[in-house]
Amino acid sequence: MSVSALLKYFIHVTGLFSGCYLLKKEEYLQRHGIVKELELFHATSPDNVPSITRNNLDWRRSVRTKFGEGVSFSPNASYANLHCNRNNPPSRAMFIAKVLFHSACGGHSAMKLPVRADTSTGNSGSVFVKYSDNEFYPTYVAYYYSQPVPRGRFRYF
Predict the structure, then answer these.
(1) DSSP class of 59
(2) Which of 17, 19, 85, 151 is geometrically suited to a Cys-Cys bond with 137, CB 3.0 to 4.6 A?
(3) Cα–Cα distances in Å, from 15 out to 9, 20, 56, 136?
């Protein structure tokens, strides 16, 4: 099913977590010698935005954990929206987050922590799951309205 989205507004999130994130990035560099910094998407209800901007995304609040018991991100905004909690209203929020990445393993629903990796992945790289504080922080949030496109309609017209 395709999804149509109408952007309401887009804001920069104040970098309250950037200091801790930078310390974690330095720790990665000292431990592994190399770290990638990804920009990934996390969709949620607008009701969750105040808590996330105050306290960051919290892996302890994860409910649906198909690829591991952590915070899920996607490199694809459409995928993040599609797998956003279906109980959320059509009015949604999409975080763009900086995410530290060194190594990954395949995730599964019972995974508490990945073995010999900092990230678990799923669905052919469409999902990245992080388990530790300060390995990610939101930089922007987009508020938008999401609605399914009826079958049979042209995708681009």
Answers:
(1) G
(2) 17
(3) 19, 10, 10, 11
Both structure tokens of 102 = 């060194």
Q: What is the pLDDT of residues 104-154, one digit of tens each?
A: 999 998 889 998 999 999 999 999 999 988 999 999 999 999 876 555 544
Q: Which residues of 117-148 are buried (b: 16+ CB within 10 A; e: fewer)?
A: bbbbbbeeebbbbbbebbbbbbbebbebebee
What is the C-alpha to C-alpha distance for residues 90 and 60, in angstroms, rounded to an integer? Answer: 25
- CATH fold group of domain 3-145: Phosphoenolpyruvate Carboxykinase; domain 3 (3.90.228)
70 contacts 131 by C-beta, under 8 angstroms: yes
Q: What is the pTM of this model?
A: 0.86
Q: Which of 108, 143, 145 is nearest to 127 (CA)?
A: 108
Task: Report how far apart, in Å, the C-alpha atoms of 73 and of each of 79, 127, 151 are.
Answer: 9, 6, 27
The one-letter amino acid at 37: E
